[in-house]
């Protein structure tokens, strides 16, 4: 097959490209230039979107012995990922930019361009497995290395996208991938993983959002209140908070019982942030929109597990699809679930699909 290897400049994508090449595929490496102004993205060897990464990816391609190109997708990335990130926070939601990048850039813009150029598949360094299904479909499964599993951020992919994907690392623990990179002579073998939002240069998400949202006239301040409406303090921007947050509230008045307070809700129009005890974070149901199914959509209630954060624990649940909406009833309550995040549905290790969380229902009956 003709394979387009998306090379971020990190160790995972380099080894994925090397494995695809070793398997006999005709591999071409491509690095995605995602910043309109490279100096505005953070620097340092972190493995995703930094100004050093194009050089690291090119060197890896040279060692592997494959052609290499840089594709400028900065406008598409700005519109579909960066602007989406800002708008979600302005609406009081907590987005996952990596998930959006996979959905709209790596497996949409890149795949579409690759297919148009005659490539058969896109290979990435994600930790997840692709398995042939009983009906000829391609199934997405969790990686062997549970600690590195990235099936959650791939849960937005459709069957057509999965059919044109290669995930060479899903059956290998991360430590072995680094060892393999060293054996292959890849200089990125010891390069640290990326953890921060790639397009925020200094890692200060709150400060970055404050600058972007101020230009849009978004309410810069608001009240911090208790569950009973009692005024506890003021803040300088609701986008600095997310549901479940404990640190950084800066409340001068301690709770009557002396226990920590957590963010329970964010109201973006008034800028009101509601806080309360940890037990008030527990939710046993949620509503999702924009469902994306990896195969055929379930035709009725589905007993399954769901994951609600990129590195969260699975929760037993019943999923009830209803057209462009999904209801999820949690058998195991979850804490600190924020609208804007994704709910990814699993049948065992297989990813069934995903949806964007629009609202949650607390164990106590409060909706957020």
From TrEMBL:
ATP binds at residues 6-13, 32, 125. One of its GO terms (cellular component) is cytoplasm. Its EC number is 2.8.1.13. The active site is at 101 (nucleophile), 198 (cysteine persulfide intermediate). Residues 148-150 are annotated as: Interaction with tRNA. It is an enzyme of class 2 (transferase). Catalyzes the 2-thiolation of uridine at the wobble position (U34) of tRNA, leading to the formation of s(2)U34. This is tRNA-specific 2-thiouridylase MnmA. It comes from Nocardioides aurantiacus.
């Amino acid at each position: 097959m003709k394979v387009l290897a998306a090379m971020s400049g990190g160790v995972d994508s380099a080894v994925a490209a090397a494995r695809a090449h070793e398997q006999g595929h005709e591999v071409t490496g491509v690095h995605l230039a995602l910043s309109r102004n490279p100096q505005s993205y953070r620097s340092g060897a972190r493995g995703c979107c930094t100004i050093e990464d194009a050089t690291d990816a090119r060197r890896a391609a040279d060692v592997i012995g494959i052609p290499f190109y840089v594709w400028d997708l900065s406008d598409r990335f700005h519109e579909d990922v960066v602007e989406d990130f800002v708008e979600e926070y302005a609406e009081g939601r907590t987005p996952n930019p990596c998930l959006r990048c996979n959905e709209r850039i790596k497996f949409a813009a890149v795949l579409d361009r690759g297919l148009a150029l005659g490539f058969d598949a896109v290979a990435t360094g994600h930790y997840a497995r692709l398995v042939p299904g009983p009906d000829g479909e391609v199934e997405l499964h969790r990686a062997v290395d549970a600690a590195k599993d990235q099936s959650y951020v791939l849960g937005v992919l459709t069957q057509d996208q999965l059919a044109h994907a290669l995930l060479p690392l899903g059956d290998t623990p991360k430590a072995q991938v680094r060892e393999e990179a060293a054996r292959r002579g890849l200089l990125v073998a010891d390069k640290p993983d990326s953890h921060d939002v790639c397009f925020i240069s200094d890692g200060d998400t709150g400060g970055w959002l404050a600058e972007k949202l101020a230009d849009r006239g978004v309410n810069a301040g608001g009240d911090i209140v208790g569950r009973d409406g009692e005024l506890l303090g003021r803040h300088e921007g609701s986008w600095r908070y997310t549901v479940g947050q404990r640190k950084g509230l800066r409340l001068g008045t301690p709770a009557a019982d002396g226990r920590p307070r957590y963010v329970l809700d964010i109201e973006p129009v008034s800028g009101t942030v509601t806080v309360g005890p940890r037990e008030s974070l527990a939710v046993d149901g949620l509503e999702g929109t924009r469902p994306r199914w990896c195969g055929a959509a379930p035709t009725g209630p589905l007993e399954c597990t769901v994951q609600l954060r990129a590195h969260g624990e699975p929760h037993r649940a019943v999923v009830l699809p209803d057209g462009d909406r999904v209801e999820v009833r949690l058998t195991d309550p979850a804490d600190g679930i924020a609208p804007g995040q994704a709910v990814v549905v699993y049948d065992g290790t297989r990813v069934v699909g995903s949806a964007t969380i629009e609202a949650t229902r607390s164990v106590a009956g409060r909706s957020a």
